[in-house]
Amino acid sequence: MVEDIHLCKGCACSKSSIFSSLSNEDLDYIDDNKSVNLYKKGDVLYREGNRILGIYCVNSGILKLYKTGLDGKEQIIAFAQKGDITGYRSVLSNEPACTTSEVIEDAAICFIPSNIIFSLVKKNADFALSLMQLTCKELNQANIFIKDIAQKTVRERLAEVLLMLEDTFGKDAEGYLTISLTRAELSNIVGTATESVIRLLSDLKSENVINMTGKKIKIVNKTELKKISNPF
Amino acid sequence: MVEDIHLCKGCACSKSSIFSSLSNEDLDYIDDNKSVNLYKKGDVLYREGNRILGIYCVNSGILKLYKTGLDGKEQIIAFAQKGDITGYRSVLSNEPACTTSEVIEDAAICFIPSNIIFSLVKKNADFALSLMQLTCKELNQANIFIKDIAQKTVRERLAEVLLMLEDTFGKDAEGYLTISLTRAELSNIVGTATESVIRLLSDLKSENVINMTGKKIKIVNKTELKKISNPF
DNA sequence: CGGTATATTGAGTGTCTTCAATCTCAGTGG
DNA sequence: CCACTGAGATTGAAGACACTCAATATACCG
Lengths: 232, 232
Hints:
homodimer, 23% strand
């Protein structure tokens, strides 16, 4: 298992993602300087406000990235899964981490030191451009999120988040969302109280739009859910 | 007036902002390929969803950048003033504009075609890095905004926005905010109904935290306003 | 001096939050 | 095997907060 991730060349991350613009030589360069670590659910890679010394590339598992409000409430900003990188913002801007990065499904993560990234950026304009485009894409996502959270009701946002989760992480053979989140985590994405999420989920269930078995959620009527998330 | 903006070298934009990493030669290169236009309040530089062919650099005046909800409601994402650039996201990612860019104070704006930007990015790694850092900074701002809008009350957000406006655009001799926004625009930043902004402003006034003369707003008790925006 | 856009105020309502109690379930130790 | 425990999930009730709609006032523009 860990064997697979010792070579960037063979890693799926290098095919998609920003690394696709790198030559084999560049990938070897990263290989020689990266380290690989295994993490368990609940582990924190870095905490908001801390300095970080490189970027993290997810080989397997899932991370949640969140900001913490002054009252201690988490706001989940994004997730990272296979092929995604995180921490690059802080590295590129040489600023403290602006989110906390926590493992929610056991993960194998590669760490690439800052100076390696910088030297690649300087050397390879296409890589720099890829990084820029990644940032721009995330910025656009963030802006859409701002609009939604400002204009939509909790119910609409919850519907949207469920669709996003299925889209991003997929579903199992029986149609249940692959990713497993607590109600509290769901509420920290949607931006609402845990109890509200629970009540609205049970509403959606009684409307036959979703189905639930224990903690697991299945989208039954995707069309209707889309309508709910986007009533215009 | 327009004379001043014919030469990037002399333009204040080139001192701060992302252009500071460019040589005189590079600035001349931009000069030879840019165009300058004057705009009136209400003019739209580009609209969300449209293709744009270059980036816009604000020499004077103010722009608001907003997304439009499906029900037609604006969500203001950011402003751009002297020295700021806009449209670069869409150019770098080669995607349609993700916001509408509208003049709210008469403006002089330089237009720099995409291919010029790309060739500078390829040629000058420091310029690329500056652009990246700009994007990262905006991304961080956006994430903070998400957290705030999700977790704070309208009153807290309004207080925060007022502080931001004073910070970003300054105040006149009598202490009034320089930037002039309608109540509707204020509500489109805060993410609330116009009436709510009006009521909360008048609350703040009766608490002697702010003062109003017609449309103009003055922050009287900044300390208190900070406390309101950040009650922990 | 109209006429239009913006601002303000009031009333009524609905959504969401908060707080507190209860329930479920998985893991633990006896 | 079962009671115990703690974390997470659920439910109920009460009330705060913010929104909508409608009416009115004021300011601004030509």
